[in-house]
C-alpha cells in the first residue's frame, strides 16, 4: 500500500515507541509531568517564544488560540482557504462565538491592502472588534506552499500598528523552515502565537504545541481545560514529540525531494497538470480536468494499484509524501498515472 493521502498516516519510529515506554510521567493538570514540562520548554525555545502548552491536536491548538485571543462577538481575519476556516468544523463560531472575515488569497497570501481594509474601526459601535489575524504556513489547500518571511513581516508590522495579535497555524511550519533552509524562528518572530503539529511529517503518533507569551499561555491553559484538554500522564504523548522535535526535522527534506520528483513525473503525462512552481514542500496538487475524468474516478483506479490519495475538488488530487514513502513508491505512482492515461487514450 502506497498511502499518499496525508502525512498524518505516519507511524511512530522505534525510538518514539521506546521513549513512550520509558517516559517519566505525572499528572499534567497539576503540572507534575516532567516529560510534558521538558517538551513545552524545548518547544518554546525552538519556536522563540516565552512559553508553550501541549494540546491534543492542531485543531485544538488553533481553537484554543482563537478563544484566548478573542471573545464572543469579535471578528477574526483569515485567508479564504485556511485550515481554521475550511477544515475545523465551524469551531470558531461554535466555540468562541466569533465571526470570520475571510479574504481570498493567492497561494495562501492575503493581499496586505485587503487585510488593512478588513480591520474594523473600534470607535464605530456598529462594527465588531478585530481580535486576530490568522496565517497558515505551509498552506495546505494551496499545495504546501511556503508563505515568505518578508510577507509575514509586513503583516506583523501592520498588526502591531493596529494592536491586533497574529496567530500562525504552523501545522507544517518545520516543512517551511526546511524548505527555505532557515531556522523556524525566522517565521515565528513575526507572529504572536503559533501552533505546530507533531503528528504529520514529524511522525509522532499525536499532539501539537501552542506557543506564545507566558501570560497568554496561562490563559490558554484554562481554555484547554474547558475544551476537555486537561491531560493526566501526558508524558506518554510528549515523549515521542520530543523525539520528533530533536530527530525528525532535517529528514523532511527527503519528503520534499520525493514530492518534486513525483510532481515532475506526473506533470509529463498527458492530461495531468501540476504547477511545479508551487511544489515547495511535501504536497503535490494534480489538476486532472483535461483527462475527462474526475479526481474521485482517478483515485478509484489508483486504489486498484494499492495507491491512495485525496480529492481536493472535483478535478484536483492531493498527494502528500512522508517518511513511509520511498523512491520506488514514487516510481510506481507515476507508472500508475501513465497506465490510467493510456487506458483512457488521453490525447
**E-strand count:** 12
Q: Report strand order across the widest sheet.
A: 2-8-7-6-5-3-4
Q: What is the C-alpha radius of gyration, as a whole number of Å? A: 21 Å
Instruction: List the helices and strands in order.
Output: EHHEHEHHEHEHEHHEEHHHEHEEEH
- Kindly name the structural category: alpha/beta
Query: How many helices in DSSP terms?
Result: 14
* Proportion of residues in helical segments: 40-55%
Point out poorly predicted stretches: none
Q: Mean pLDDT, nearest integer?
A: 97
**Terminal Cα span:** 29 Å
The biggest beta sheet reads: 7 strands, mixed
Which percent band covers the strand fraction? 15-25%
> What's the shape?
globular
Quaternary status: single chain
Secondary-structure map:
Elements: E1 2-3, H1 14-22, H2 34-47, E2 51-55, H3 58-69, E3 75-79, H4 83-86, H5 91-96, E4 99-103, H6 112-118, E5 130-136, H7 149-161, E6 166-169, H8 173-180, H9 185-188, E7 193-197, E8 208-212, H10 214-226, H11 235-247, H12 252-267, E9 283-287, H13 295-303, E10 307-308, E11 310-313, E12 316-320, H14 327-343
Parallel strand pairs: 1-10, 3-4, 3-5, 5-6, 6-7
Antiparallel strand pairs: 2-8, 7-8, 9-12, 11-12
Keyword list:
347 residues, alpha/beta, 7-stranded mixed beta sheet, 3-stranded antiparallel beta sheet, 14 helices, 42% helix, 16% strand, globular
Précis, in short:
With 347 residues, the protein is α/β, with parallel strands linked by helices.
